[in-house]
Write a structure and sequence with these properties.
By secondary structure, the chain is an alpha/beta fold. InterPro entries: Hypoxan-DNA_Glyclase, Uracil-DNA_glycosylase-like, Uracil-DNA_glycosylase-like_sf.
C-alpha cells in the first residue's frame, strides 16, 4: 500500500472542536476506521475524557464524539506513503483535505487539536501557507501523538495533556450538554 486516501470527516453540524491526525495508518485503512491500531491511545483517551466504555462499537464511539461536539478528520486527503509511519509520506504527493468547505459547513468550530506534530506541520504547510481561508477565531494546539510510534510518552501523561480538549468544549457549553446526554437513563 503506497498511494492512500483518508476517510471522510466525522462531525455533527454543531461541532465545536476539530481533532486532526495526519492520515490513517495501514491498520486503520484496512479496517476503514479512525485509530484502529489496537495500541493507539486515541480511543482510550476519548473514552476517559467523555466517560464512555472503551468497549463500545466503532459507530457508537463516533456517535459519542459527535454528541460531545468533537469533529474528527485528517489533514491529508491523499498521498504516497509506504507503511504507516508519517515520516515516510512523500511530501510532494500530499493533497490536503478541503478545509474551506469543512469550516463553511461547521462554523462553530473554534479550536483545532492536532494529534501529534506531523499533523500540525502538514496543516501549516499545506493549508495555512497555501492561503486557505480559516475562521478568525480559530485556536490551534498540538497534542502528543496517540500513535504507538510515540511509545516514549505513557498513556496517562498523554491523557493529562489531552484534557485541554474538554476545556474547549466546556468553554463553548458543549461538554455539559454532552455529559447530560450521555448519562444513563434511569
Amino acid at each position: 500500500m503506497a498511494d492512500i486516501q483518508s476517510f471522510d470527516y466525522v462531525a455533527a453540524p454543531d461541532a465545536r472542536v476539530l481533532i486532526l491526525g495526519s492520515i490513517p495508518g495501514v491498520k486503520s485503512l484496512q479496517e476503514v476506521q479512525y485509530y484502529a491500531h489496537p495500541r493507539n491511545g486515541f480511543w482510550p483517551i476519548m473514552a476517559a475524557l467523555l466517560g464512555f466504555p472503551p468497549s463500545l462499537s466503532y459507530p457508537e464511539r463516533l456517535e459519542r464524539l459527535k454528541m460531545a461536539g468533537i469533529a474528527l478528520w485528517d489533514v491529508v486527503h491523499r498521498c504516497h506513503r509506504p507503511g504507516s509511519l508519517d515520516q515516510n509520506i512523500a511530501g510532494e504527493s500530499v493533497e490536503a483535505n478541503d478545509f474551506s468547505a469543512f469550516f463553511r459547513r461547521h462554523p462553530r468550530v473554534h479550536a483545532i487539536y492536532f494529534n501529534g506534530g506531523t499533523a500540525e506541520t502538514m496543516f501549516k504547510r499545506h493549508v495555512v501557507r497555501a492561503g486557505i481561508p480559516l475562521p478568525e477565531h480559530l485556536s490551534m494546539t498540538r497534542l502528543p501523538s496517540t500513535s504507538p510510534a510515540n511509545a516514549g510518552t505513557p498513556l496517562a501523561q498523554k491523557l493529562e495533556q489531552w484534557r485541554v480538549v474538554m476545556g474547549s468544549l466546556r468553554d463553548s457549553g458543549c461538554a455539559l450538554q454532552a455529559q447530560r446526554t450521555l448519562q444513563p437513563k434511569r
